[in-house]
Design a protein that fits this description.
globular, five-stranded mixed beta sheet, Cytochrome p450, 12 strands, three-stranded antiparallel beta sheet, binds protoporphyrin IX containing FE, alpha+beta, single chain
């Protein structure tokens, strides 16, 4: 490693101490600091009694997430998530994480994802019928609530498949509904999520007792997954943690992406009309497979631009295992590093007129248009989002189904009140007027 000239003491940053990510004010404070200190600065955390380094230069991000990723663990925030999700792939590290990731990865292969198409389309068709009734009655839609329910329905049906009716019957309503009905991500929520472990254990026993029943869902794929080296399957505890991870990780982020995209389409009716006209040329129903949605350029551009301006996973954290050089500065062992898709996606050196919603930014092939690490809504490197293609498929089917049928209009012009804690989302529910096309 070359000896850097600068030391940590020369890194710019605000004098006032602040715990990034721990308070409602993080986004506002960071907005000011990014403008003032640029793409690499430090903030002293009183809770952790050390500095947090905010990294916004795409080359540094590449080093943290890809080229030198072995020198980093996830760090701040993971402890809290661990109470919620146990030791699943979201929170684990090292060899154990690697093994779990290798075992789960095939379930997210494109060929496999295509088979989730019928479930994704069926849920959207059901919501389209509901929205049609609302449109007829002239009632507005609570987009936040609808997006949350719809993504939960899709997610649960992808995870539990044919067991879902059994779950409802056996445990009354849908016990996994709490991901949608509980707004706070506090200890009470964590306790309630952990109490779902018993249900997952019962489902494991049920499926293992009757292997003759074929199931196609994430749960079945995880149950059948084998360690490449040892041939071992996952233990009951590992399965519980992975299933709960998928329930939680796949829900709020996707719901938030749907809500933000409707928000943007409401603010930019010209793009809504553009997307609606192109959606009407796509096959409706069964023909809307993974390939067709991936080739739907107008839809993809709108979704990508929405994920640029409003990335639900707005902040990622890492911690150095050994000293590392970022931006010409040697960070000590145990340094907290924050990488924020929200701010990288607004980096003035990589995005012109960054606050403007402009889907055409994504019209060109990504490599030609921008630095690969200036756009990271799903993270990057070995720990990038395992559900990326599933989420993009689900979001595209939603807009292809709805935009051709309905026009959604904002109810007011007030600037949005946002909340940036674990996810970047609207603070209050997004209500929109709906008209049939
Ligand atoms: C628009 C929707 C989504 C967004 C914006 C999103 C974003 C992200 C981001 C930024 C990360 C990386 C975190 C880090 O490196 O610290 C991540 C990881 C992850 N996501 Fe997603 N995600 C979405 C949907 C999903 C879905 C649908 C699933 C599952 C069905 C999922 C499962 C996961 C898992 C398990 C990880 C951890 C992967 C690992 O550490 O190996 N996500 N996601």
């Amino acid at each position: 490693m070359s000896v850097p000239e600068a030391t940590v003491g020369t890194v710019p940053g605000p004098d006032e101490p602040f715990d990034l990510g721990a308070s409602e004010e993080s986004l506002e404070r960071l907005t000011g600091w990014c403008a003032r200190y640029g793409e690499f600065f430090r903030v002293y955390s009183p809770a952790r009694r050390r500095h947090t380094y905010v990294v916004l230069a795409p080359d540094d991000i590449k080093r943290v997430l890809v080229t030198n990723h072995r020198n980093y663990v996830k760090g701040v925030g993971t402890d809290q998530i661990m109470i919620l999700l146990g030791r699943g792939i979201m929170t684990s590290e090292g060899d154990f994480w690697h093994r779990q990731r290798r075992m789960l990865q095939p379930a997210f292969h494109r060929r496999v994802l295509d088979r989730f198409g019928p479930a994704i389309r069926a849920v959207n068709a059901e919501y389209a019928a509901r929205w049609a009734k609302r449109a007829q009655r002239g009632e507005p839609i609570n987009i936040t609530e609808a997006a949350s329910e719809l993504t939960l329905d899709i997610n649960l049906s992808a995870i539990f498949g044919r067991d879902l009716p059994f779950i409802r019957e056996r445990f009354g309503r849908n016990p996994f509904d709490i991901v949608h009905t509980e707004a706070n991500r506090d200890l009470r929520f964590a306790y309630r999520i952990r109490s779902l472990a018993g249900i997952v254990r019962e489902l494991i026993a049920r499926r293992r007792a009757d292997p003759s029943q074929e199931h196609f869902d994430f749960f079945g794929l995880a149950l059948g997954a084998r360690d490449k080296d040892t041939g071992a399957v996952m233990t009951e505890k590992e399965l519980v943690d992975e299933v709960l991870t998928l329930v939680v990780a796949g829900h709020e982020t996707t719901a938030s992406a749907l809500t933000w995209t409707w928000y943007q389409l409401g603010r930019h009716p010209q793009f809504q009309e553009w997307v609606a006209a192109s959606a009407a040329r796509l096959p409706d129903g069964d023909g809307l497979d993974l390939e067709r949605t991936e080739e739907w350029h107008e839809g993809q551009q709108v979704i990508k631009e929405s994920l640029r301006l409003c990335p639900p996973g707005w902040m990622m954290t890492r911690r150095t295992l050994e000293p590392d050089v970022l931006h010409g500065v040697t960070l000590p062992r145990g340094a907290d590093v924050f990488v924020s898709p929200y701010f990288v996606h607004r980096h003035p050196g990589h995005w012109s007129d960054a606050e403007r919603f402009e889907p055409a930014r994504f019209a060109e092939a990504p490599s030609a248009a921008r630095h690969r690490f200036a756009y990271i809504p799903f993270g990057a490197g070995p720990r990038h989002c395992i559900g990326e293609n599933f989420a993009l498929y689900e979001i595209a089917v939603h807009f292809a189904t709805m935009a051709r049928r309905f026009r959604l209009l904002p109810i007011d012009d007030a600037p949005p009140q946002v909340e940036a804690r674990i996810n970047y989302r609207l603070r209050s529910d997004l209500m929109m007027r709906i008209e049939p096309r």
